[in-house]
Amino acid sequence: MTVIDRLVRGEYTDSASGNVLSVPTRSVIIRDSLRGDEGDLVRSLDFGSTLAVVSDAATYDVMGKRVETALQSFCKIIPLRLDRPPYPDTDTVDQLRNAGANADAWIAIGSGTINDLCKYASAQENKPYAVFGTAPSMNGFTSVNAAMSVNGLKRSLAAAAPAGVFLDLEVLAGAPKRMICAGLGDSLCRPTAQTDWLIAHYLLDQPYSDVPFNLLAEDEEGLFAESDALMRGDLVAMGRLARTLVLSGFGMTLSGGSYPASQGEHLISHYIEMMAKNQQMIFHGEQIAVTTLTMARLHERLLGKVPPKPKSTNISKDDVTHHFGPDLGSLCWPEISAKSFNPEQAEQLSSRIVDCWDIMCDRIDKARIPSEKLHRILQKAKAPLAPLDLGWSPDFYNTAVKHARLIRKRYTALDLAADSGVDLL
User: Fold this and answer.
1) Residue 155 belongs to a domain with what CATH number?
2) By Cβ atoms counted within 10 A, which residue in 81, 120, 223, 295 is the most buried?
3) For residue range 35-92, what is the model confidence (pLDDT) as tens digits?
4) What's the pLDDT at 157?
């Protein structure tokens, strides 16, 4: 029985604590092909007699038509076709909620944005949902948070867990190569996210768990060793990626937040999504590939033999408002002020760093992957490696790395380095 099966059945035992863990998702099916089984998979969830099926032009052609045809044999469907590309904000969610008001449940046909829209609508309506993935582009299939834009600020909002996740590996392998690279990029941030989470745990006593990372251990080495196989359409490699994405989402669910999969590398990405003007179509995971390399290099500079000595956080409300403007600035100020240190607090933090530095660094060394190795993994898959690969100018990217910590109260190496005078780039 696989790790996923044991979690879904509530039979997974955490080796460290001995606790038996379970997840709210009732069914995860990952097969080489799901053709002909779509109706039975949804029927097993007992969703009711009217289902809203959400897709866009691309995902309808890839999977939506198959699913709608299958569902029409036993229920009424409300087909909801979104503009391409759909935008993940609360206005779009409200439109879906209105259009699908008479549905008993939601069926998402897609990946990142469509899944987030449906899981957030599901939570708001208190109706169940399931997802048929069409690309292995992100790790949010099974998480209980949705990345949404609220008044222009990127937020991770509480959302519903899917009752069912159905992944057809042939469909995933046929996705655009950039979307496959995006899923690899979103998976590759495991070591940088774990490092940042450990920093916050050791320095600020924030809760931490190894469970999300233990879930990934079985597939990670093989996935990273043969990243080029993904580009060849290899279904064994695609299976590893699909399981990694599903288990990463479960790790977030078990942790009660996105901590194990979203840290400094995601802050940089979220800043860019907020502030870039006329940005070309870039997939989230492509951004994470580049920002993960940035964070890995920062960790290597920061976590050396000499402990950093943070000083008070020299950022004022006027600084934040001047940079972001009055509207976004008013939203960002509470985030950065929540993790700012005055001189006395900075001195206390410095003392704590000295006391725990060697222990913390030894623990982090077991979790980290060298930046050069991460670079090679992405290079083999022909994934983006540098800001210019995504059309970001050096000046804009430098600004993003410098200011990314301002948008969220999550404490990462970006904060420790900036307050300690360590170069971020």
Assistant:
1) 3.40.50.1970
2) 295
3) 999 999 999 999 999 999 999 999 999 999 999 999 999 999 999 999 877 888 888 8
4) 79
Note down the domain range covering 303: 190-208+260-420
Q: Are 314 and 342 in contact (CB under 8 A)?
A: no
Task: State residue 149's pLDDT score.
Answer: 77
Are 374 and 273 members of one domain?
Answer: yes
Per-residue pLDDT tens over the stretch 170-189: 999 999 999 999 999 999 99
Tell me: do 344 and 369 sit in the same domain: yes
154 and 203 part of one domain: no
Q: Answer whether the bond into residue 394 is a cis peptide, omega within 30°.
A: no
Q: In sequence order, what DSSP letters do the residues of 15-49 get, joined into one string?
A: TTT--EE--S--EEEEES--TT-HHHHHHTT---S
Q: Where are the alpha helices (DSSP H) in 175-263?
A: 177-188, 190-204, 211-225, 227-231, 235-255
Report the SS3 class of residue 101. coil
Token readout for 144 is: 């209980």
Query: Could you give the CA distance from residue 196 to residue 412 in angstroms, rounded to a whole number?
Result: 5
Q: Which residue has the tokens 């036993």?
A: 74
Q: Kindly tell me the sign of the dihedral angle through the C-alpha atoms of 271, 275, 279, 281.
A: positive
Q: Is the pLDDT of residue 265 over 90?
A: yes
Map residue 61 onto helix, strand or coil.
helix
349 φ/ψ angles, rounded to the nearest 5 degrees? -65, -40
pTM: 0.92
Helix axes 326-337, 317-324, angle to 10 degrees: 140
Tokens 């994470």 sit on residue? 288
Backbone φ and ψ for 389, nearest 5 degrees, come out as -60, -25
Give 112's pLDDT tier (boundaries 50, 70, 90). Answer: confident
pLDDT greater than 70 at residue 256? yes
Q: In angstroms, rounded to a whole number, what is the distance separating the alpha carbons of residues 228 and 152? A: 36
Domain count, the chain: 2
